[in-house]
Each structure stands twice: as structure tokens, then as C-alpha cells.
Specification:
The chain is mostly beta strands. The chain has one domain. 11% of the residues lie in helices and 48% in strands. It has two helices and five strands, in the order H-E-E-E-E-E-H. The protein has a five-stranded antiparallel beta sheet with strand order 1-2-3-4-5. The longest helix has 5 residues. The protein is elongated. The two termini are 16 Å apart.
């Protein structure tokens, strides 16, 4: 099973902490996650935001993630989440 730690490439010596998860219903149901990464000394290294939007139709929705450094500057972004992480939203 894939994990957010492997998706974000969090080193084994760091800790990834879930901060918030929320879901939205409606025409395009969605789930959003926020995580924070801390190093071995407890210092905040990065913040992450991920999402899965479900849609009926051919494309099946969209998903992605963003990584911000400790100052809040965007440093990386990815399109798509692995299927087993997408299933957590179901």
C-alpha cells in the first residue's frame, strides 16, 4: 500500500503529521488533506496539501498535491494520487 510518506518522499527520520482532512459533497465530491513534516529534532520542514475530486464521466475526476516549505513558499507540485490513496477518499 502506498502512503502519503512515500508520495511526498518523506525521509524515514522525519515524521508526517495529519493536520486536517475534510470532505465536500455536491456535483463534484472531493476530499482534501493537510499534513506537516517535522525533522528528527521536531522542527517544521514542510506543509502539504492534497486533494481528490470525483466526477462522473470519462475522466473520473482529478487529484494532486502541493508542497510548501516552512515559510509557506510553494516548492513542489504533483498531479494525481496513487489509486490506494484516492480510495481513502471514498
Amino acid at each position: 500500500m502506498r502512503s502519503f510518506e512515500s508520495l511526498y518522499r518523506v525521509p524515514a527520520t522525519h515524521r508526517l503529521v495529519p493536520v486536517r482532512s475534510r470532505s465536500r459533497g455536491g456535483t463534484v465530491p472531493a476530499t482534501y488533506w493537510e499534513h506537516e513534516e517535522y525533522d528528527a529534532s521536531g522542527r517544521l520542514i514542510a506543509r502539504y496539501e492534497s486533494y481528490v475530486e470525483s466526477a462522473s464521466g470519462v475522466d473520473g475526476g482529478r487529484s494532486g498535491w502541493s508542497k510548501y516549505n516552512a515559510r509557506g513558499v510553494l516548492v513542489d507540485r504533483g498531479a494525481g494520487l496513487p489509486n490506494d490513496l484516492r480510495e481513502e477518499a471514498a
